[in-house]
Amino acid sequence: MKLSTRSRYGVRFMLDLALHAAKGPVQLGAVARRQGIGVKYLEQIASRLKKADFIISVRGPKGGHLLSRPPEEITVAEVVTLLEGGLKLAGCSNGDGECDRWERCVTRVIWAEAAQAFLEKLEAINLKDLMDRVACVGSPEECDEAEDHKP
To answer: Per the confidence metrics, is the pTM higher than 0.85?
Structure first.
């Protein structure tokens, strides 16, 4: 299974918002620069996250985006499931009629169980957990910011 860039970038975007929340609303341009993501693509991701009430937008010169809930209340699974449109390893694993062998296929059970295990792992990780894992790998300013978020 390969996650889309939308999911990977979405989790990085949410983590960036969490890491910089103390400074107020975070502008997309700043996230784009820090994360190496195109602003237009980030706008599309932000739009989906906003519609699902994961983030809120603040207008004005000091506007930007904020998490709608505390980082410990947002799991990676929620973000990935939203941005992927659900999680399944094979189209047949949910019985949506994509395969005419569904009723007699033994392997579909494996795909469903593997997807469930993957989802459970992502449900066990929230944005606060990721914040706690942040390592200093950037500029001195980023290192100072990362140190502020370590337990």
So the answer is: no
Q: What pLDDT sits at residue 102?
A: 62
Domain containing residue 133: CATH number: 1.10.10.10
Nearest to 7 by CA among 116, 117, 81, 88: 81
Contact 31, 37 (CB under 8 A): yes
Is 15:131 a contact under the CB 8 Å cutoff? yes
Structure tokens at 140: 């001195």
* Domain of residue 135, residue span: 5-148
Give the whole-angstrom CA distance, residue 142 versus residue 135. 10
User: What is the total count of domains within the chain?
Assistant: 1
pLDDT tens digits for 81-117? 999 887 666 666 555 556 666 667 778 778 788 888 9
- Three-state SS letters, 49-72: HHHCCCEEEECCCCCEEEECCCHH
